[in-house]
# Entry
Amino acid sequence: MISLDDTMRADLTAKKPPAADAWKKTIDMVSFFEQRKELRTYQPHGLLALISNFSGSGLRPRQEAVNLLPRLRQPFRVIARSRAAAASFAGLQAIYYVDKEAPDAALRKKLLAFASGGGTLLVQSNWPNPEGPPAKAESYLLFNMRKVGKGQLGVCKEEKPDAYDTVADIQIIMSHGNDLLRLYNAPSSNFLYETSAQGKQGVIHLLNYSRRPGGDGALFYVKEPYKSARVVSPELASPAELKWDPQEAGGAELTLPRLSVYGAIELEK
# Structure
């Protein structure tokens, strides 16, 4: 739904150039997304999952986790607690069980199996009867780490921890060495990473929050083994193919064109 104010309506009726130009840009933007309807079926992708019912008392910490992780440019996906027992944890490195309410027996068993298999399970301070012996961890972290099989269980030290410190420490525990994506030289921009159901296609939505176009020299590091990448944007006359610059530690870097507001990197395996 596009809603126009009275001034815009009057200027369009009078065919004033600024209004006509703004209207054309609006229609071009709508057409751009209509031509890429398949992207609406893609789902957020990341190594971290948040599990919560996102309702009831104590809702703010759960909302803050969802708000703050994007500020750290940490890709993640959300799993509703009511669906977690049937959800797949494949491809995840860590799970943050946000709720203070203990999971039911079936979900707790599944979460601990995830940790025992090599994953990292992070929970609130009131997690009943934490499993496993203490594990070595940096003392400044908000989580007491415990060894569980091949993985680890992190129990928050505080009953009401700072929301930003919590997600920042989760990122530290996961380690930047495991990052799927990194954006360099674009401080006013952020991104959303999504993949198709089959995992063969991916898209990185880029948004510049500044009134100035994104600076030259912006780089995107992509760890996963895609074969091709191109940038599409209403600002570009045609898609721009990107060159892969392989990195010694794995993955590759992509040099991005200058974007004023929005662009998307379309990836193909």
